[in-house]
Design a protein that fits this description.
mainly alpha, elongated
Amino acid sequence: MAAGHIENYYLRLKRNVIYTALEDIEDTEWFWAPSEIKEFDWLWEKDKPIKEIADEMGRSAVAVLMLALDRIHKERIKPREWRIW
């Protein structure tokens, strides 16, 4: 009974198939050094487009976008007005 209660509490949305977003992107690295984050924040504040930041940092545009979303979510950088690319 307790297991059923826990399952109902934590698994509110039962899914037959689970889709993992971005799992097939091979050129994306998810790990960043503190010095890279500092450089990213500086480039972001200079209003550089994501593609330019990616080129300058030697990363994929997707990796930079994911870092941007993370930094925006954590309120470390300011969001842009739909001009991220």
